[in-house]
Amino acid sequence: MSRKNKKLPLLEHVTIETVAAEGNCLFHDGEQVVFVPYCIPGDVCDVQIVKKKHRYCEGRVVRLIEPAPLRTEPMCPHFGICGGCRWQILPYEEQLKAKQKQVMDQLTRIGKVALPACRPILGSVKTREYRNKLEFGCCNRRWFTKEELSDPTLNLDDNHSAIGFHIAGAFDKIYPIRECKLMDGFHNRVRNDIEKYARDNGIVFYDIRTQKGLLRDLIFRNSNTGEWMLIIQFHFDETGGQAEAEQLMQHIVDTFPEITSLIWLDNQKGNDSIGDQELHTFHGTDFIYETMEDLRFKVGPKSFYQTNTDQAYHLYSVARYFAFAPLEEIRSYQAEDGVEVHADRLPDYQLKNEPDKLPLIYDLYTGTGTIANFVARRAEHVVGIEYVPEAIEDAKINSKINHIDNTEFYAGDMKKILTDDFISQHGRPDIIITDPPRAGMDQEVVDVILNAAPRRIVYVSCNPATQARDLQLMDTAYEVQAVQPVDMFPHTPHVENVVLLTKRD
Q1: CATH class of 133-287
Q2: pTM (2 d.p.)
Q3: Where in the chain are the domains?
Q4: Active-site residue flag, 462
């Protein structure tokens, strides 16, 4: 019998030891580490090994024998099935401790650079309904749980189309979501109504294998101004489908006047990304507004904006503070014992001193110019660079509507735009603020930053692992002065981190 066909063991009465990466926990079976999702430290359970590697195993809980004293009830009826929000059963205070440890472990293990004491993580103001963007797939074949498949009344020949989230390991299947707690409940009403209307009117849901079917994807966005945007991806087959699509959208407009921006597209690609697609406005505007302090930000359907609006303000306040505050003040910060649960500590982050000279600032990966405009009033000039052209156009508008005239923005691939020649043309920055995607910065970008030699670098990251790698690349020239984790995504293992670097003498 080949090795892959060997029966994997059931490990009985094991105790989960600690939190691990990617929302998993772990325990040891002899010398072997076993990673398990949907459990917390202290749980006693039976674990079925599902994958065996040389250095580790992966398992799943088949029976919870004794729940950990810390375990809480999950907030979501879909917990354990949709694949998201794996830490719902872990108290939020413990989530924050795990995230803080994750940040420091990755900076230490991967970055291998000298670090100051890490400031207490800033917890999210909201732990429910905190997201301003959610995307749902529409599919003609839904995922069934084992319990559902055991129902003798289930007829698999019926129409089992669904709107929901893709199941990990089953790219062609969707688990239907009736209630998601991560966004204002209004989106649940809209999504469920669209599913019912589509079923009642014979609209064909998309089949990712054959790439046929009309209704493909829903993207919801809302804002702290009370506006709602809905983007619907259709897939028009050879026989058309636009008339059906327009009837559906008119139904949405008539039923939900709260939606201020209804946008659609015909996506014929193999994936659901919309960055390269032509969008059409069916109703209302093609944007919504977010506010931050006294600033307004136009957010279009292709624009990046931090998905936790309230927490974005705290994140950017930290970045601004690190950019301008005197180093002595930053270094003298004394963290309180324990972990902060709520990010209501803004007085600690108010700027107390004006710089002697207003700096030239580069804002890399600027998105819609949120950070650029947020710091512009304390800068001589701000130069923003972003890959998405539509986001750059929004960034320019955001400066205009906020009466900010000391910014300029450029669209394109960062490593192609940010060159030594670009620096020579636009000026050597005093401060660089960088907020790259999860992959971090390309080596070419790091090299240009080092050549530019700004006195400060404020590095905002949604992935401390790639941030740590980049810190190591800059370690010969820059010293880490402060580390501030910020939780943007409660109930998930993801965490943002802000690092201040200053040029070595």
Answers
A1: mainly beta
A2: 0.90
A3: 3-71, 93-127+305-503, 133-287
A4: yes
